[in-house]
């Protein structure tokens, strides 16, 4: 678990052939998809997946994504993707760690930042909508 994580989720993914380059190394652009799988697992823990967000009147586009590649994920390798919610009051900041499931070796560290956008006005919100805090409180992740 990441220090200061409010909520965490973990998923295991087997690297498919179509995610790899000719050297059987995962193409760098595919890591965003792995983050997405873990992010959805994290958001489902508070019943606030993307359809729930949309139903609440907001969408949460990613406005920043940073990735540091420490090692390479390879074809057929089992990886574990950990997602940790580290900020929520004005934005969703989620930290990620991808590691080899077999050895535990760290492969990739990253984070994404999402902000709420009102579906009707298309205006970015500078404070997260109350529904997010309500969802986190309902599952006892925040006071």
UniProtKB/TrEMBL annotation:
A Pfam family annotated for this UniProt entry: 4HBT_2
Keywords attached to this Swiss-Prot or TrEMBL record, sorted alphabetically, are: Hydrolase
Record's SUPFAM superfamilies?
A: Thioesterase/thiol ester dehydrase-isomerase (SSF54637)
> Molecular function (GO) terms listed?
fatty acyl-CoA hydrolase activity
InterPro entries linked: 4-hydroxybenzoyl-CoA_TE (IPR050563), HotDog_dom_sf (IPR029069)
PANTHER family per record: 4-HYDROXYBENZOYL-COA THIOESTERASE FAMILY MEMBER, NOVEL THIOESTERASE SUPERFAMILY DOMAIN AND SAPOSIN A-TYPE DOMAIN CONTAINING PROTEIN (0610012H03RIK)
- Member of which family? Belongs to the 4-hydroxybenzoyl-CoA thioesterase family.
Q: What is this protein called?
A: Acyl-CoA thioester hydrolase
């Amino acid at each position: 678990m990441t220090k200061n994580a409010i909520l965490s989720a973990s998923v295991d993914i087997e690297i498919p052939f179509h995610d790899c380059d000719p050297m059987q190394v995962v193409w760098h652009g595919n890591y965003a998809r792995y983050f997405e799988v873990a992010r959805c697992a994290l958001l489902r823990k508070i019943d606030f997946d993307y359809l729930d967000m949309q139903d609440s009147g907001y969408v949460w586009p990613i406005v920043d994504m940073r990735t540091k590649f420490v090692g390479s994920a390879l074809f057929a390798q089992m990886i574990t993707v950990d997602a940790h919610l580290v900020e929520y009051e004005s934005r969703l900041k989620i930290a990620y760690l991808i590691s080899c499931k077999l050895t535990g070796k760290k492969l990739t560290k990253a984070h994404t930042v999402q902000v709420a956008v009102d579906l009707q006005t298309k205006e970015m919100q500078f404070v997260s909508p109350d529904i997010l805090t309500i969802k986190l409180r309902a599952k006892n992740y925040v006071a």
